[in-house]
């Protein structure tokens, strides 16, 4: 059996998982990044673009593109921050709020696909090992 580098396996799983996720999200005209940002806004009502970029650990320009798409599709709206006139606060519209339970169901469905035929113990161990990988990366970036 061929031994694959762990980073290649993670990349492959990530890409394939996103393909499955797209199958669920396409009917709502949402992309992978957009659904995650919508979820962040729902959890942190009034959050700024910079706040999302910090939580998601990504650049503001990628967030801005997703935010524009979410606004255009009627999932969120923005309003000026009263304390910092240069910034905007982001909020879910009614359509966006109604999407959150659907997003949660989609995430659970993708998890079920990923963990099919794994025992609860194996699934728990996978989560634990992934958290260790994530911590190792964070330490290397300090």
Give your account of this protein's structure.
It is a single chain. The protein has a two-stranded antiparallel ribbon. It has helices at 6-25, 32-43, 49-56, 60-72, 94-114, 120-141; strands at 76-80, 88-92. The relative contact order is 0.11. α2 crosses α4, α2 (32-43) crosses α5 and α3 crosses α4. It has one domain: Arc Repressor Mutant, subunit A (Orthogonal Bundle). It is globular and about 60 Å long. It has 142 residues and is mainly alpha-helical. 68% of the residues lie in helices and 7% in strands. The termini are far apart.
Descriptors:
142 residues; mainly alpha; Arc Repressor Mutant, subunit A
Describe the protein's topology.
Elements: H1 6-25, H2 32-43, H3 49-56, H4 60-72, E1 76-80, E2 88-92, H5 94-114, H6 120-141
Antiparallel strand pairs: 1-2
Helix pairs in contact: 1-5, 2-4, 2-5, 3-4
Order of helices and strands: HHHHEEHH
Number of domains: 1
Strand runs, count = 2
Q: What does the overall shape look like?
A: globular
- What structural category characterises the helix and strand content? mainly alpha
Question: In the CATH scheme, what's the topology name?
Answer: Arc Repressor Mutant, subunit A
Terminal-residue CA separation: 36 Å
> What is the CATH C level class, in words?
Mainly Alpha
Strands of the biggest beta sheet: in what spatial order? 1-2
Mean pLDDT equals 93
CATH superfamily: Winged helix-like DNA-binding domain superfamily/Winged helix DNA-binding domain
Uncertain regions: pLDDT < 50 for 5+ in a row? none
* Radius of gyration over C-alpha positions, nearest whole angstrom: 17 Å
Q: CATH architecture, please? A: Orthogonal Bundle
Helix content: 55-70%
Strand content: 5-15%
Number of helices: 6
Largest sheet: 2 strands, antiparallel
